Amino acid sequence: EPQGVGALQLAFEQLKKKLSEEGLFDEKRKRPIPFLPQRIGIVTSGTGAALRDILRVINRRYANVHIVIRPALVQGKTAAQDVAQGIRDLNDYKKIDVIIVGRGGGSLEDLWPFNEEPVARAVFSSRIPVISAVGHEIDFTICDFTADLRAATPTEAAELVVKEKFRLIRDLKNLNERMRQSLLRRLNLCRLSLQRTAKSYALRRPQAVIEQYLQRVDGLEKSLKLHLLHLVKVRTEQLNGLRRRLSKYIVIITSLGGRIQETGRALAAGLRHMMLVKESRTKQISGRLLNLNPLAILARGYSVTSVDGKPLKSADVVKRGDILRTMLNKGIIISRVEDKEL
After folding, report:
1. Rounded Cα gap, residues 34 and 167, in angstroms
2. Which of 1, 225, 307, 334 has a CA-to-CA distance to 113 between 20 and 30 Å?
3. pLDDT tens sequence across 199-247
4. Alpha-carbon gap, residue 202 to 154, rounded angstroms
5. Taking a C-beta distance cutoff of 8 angstroms, is the pair 144, 150 a contact?
6. E strands along 20-73, which residues?
7. How far, in Å, CA of 291 to CA of 146, rounded?
8. CA 123, 127, 131: angle at the middle one, nearest 5?
9. CB 156 within 8 A of CB 105
10. Chain-centre distance for alpha carbon 234
11. Residue 298 in contact with residue 327, Cβ under 8 Å?
């Protein structure tokens, strides 16, 4: 295999396992892509083919959407940090509904910045849903596993982010045509009924019947308008309720964050104090142990004499010819007993 590819593949598997165990790939935390995104952020090379493909598809499918481009390096040693910072920059901009991050195809080495931990962390921490569009269909990166949605190519990412708008416009046109055809059929039926009635001479005042139908049409129109207004009002109230609940949660989270910081500072101060106490105690014990160490006594000029491995405390226990071992601060003297004095 080409030199370096095996090492990169091993690094890929190790980082993938690590981040998976931390929960960065958990499907439960992934958010849906907005149904009608008004502003789309793009993090990719400002001169690459991927950006041109994305803009071309979006312009063709829904030209009036707002695009915010954050150019970034997508290859090289500093590319991962630049892509991660680009994601954070679009989050700080706070006017983005969805982010597309990626680049065109290439070798494993070319796509490697999107397999690095800084990019995965930035995608995971993003408050805005992220679509990963790196390489071709067969290419899979750590960024793909972390993102809220993976697109096989940058072109597919553009199709995914605006496909609902295209379908909505198409469905609205279909509904409008169905409603028009339904009204025409109803009008034709009414016209036929009117003609049959007129022919039977039972209708003396055709204008009154027409006015009656016109009144029914007006009533249906008013009813439809009231129903739509009521529906809009209900949905608006629900949205406002969700916003109020979200504001409360934000306040609670902010408060908890402050308490956590205070607790952390108190814990750090307590640990520092405990370490100082333990360090002082250790020094005291070390001093005492040093004073009790028999070897420290030898350093002051004393010695220890032993016979048969036992310390010699009295001359009574030795006799002429015994071998003595005298331990000094440096070295041992071996001697033989020639005489003794009591």
Report:
1. 14
2. 1
3. 665 455 666 667 788 888 888 988 898 998 999 999 999 999 898 888 8
4. 70
5. yes
6. 39-44, 66-71
7. 61
8. 45
9. no
10. 34
11. yes
Backbone phi, then psi, for 198, in 5-degree steps?
-65, -40
124 and 146 Cβ atoms separated by less than 8 Å: yes
Helix (H, G, I), strand (E, B) or coil at 328: coil
Contact 328, 303 (CB under 8 A): yes
- CA–CA separation, 42 and 70 (whole Å): 6
Contacts of 198 (CB under 8 A, 6+ apart): 206
Residue with tokens 């952020």: 41
Supply the DSSP string of 106-146, one letter for each residue. Answer: --TTTTGGGGSHHHHHHHHH-SS-EEEEESSTT---HHHHH
Q: Are 123 and 87 in contact (CB under 8 A)?
A: yes
Residues in the chain: 342
SS (H, E, C) 282-308: HHHHHHHHHHHCHHHHHCCCCCEEEEC
Distances (CA, A) of 103 to 56, 69, 92, 138, 151: 15, 13, 22, 14, 11
Contact 172, 51 (CB under 8 A): no
pLDDT under 50: residue ranges of the chain: 1-2, 202
- Tell me the one-letter amino acid at 130: V
Q: Write out the H or E segment, with its range, that includes residue 178.
A: helix 154-199
Q: Please state the φ and ψ torsions of residue 103, each to the nearest 5 degrees.
A: -165, 175
Mapped onto helix, strand or coil, the DSSP state of residue 150 is: strand
pLDDT in tens, 62-107: 878 899 999 999 998 999 999 999 999 999 998 899 999 999 888 8
Distances (CA, A) of 157 to 72, 93, 150: 18, 21, 8
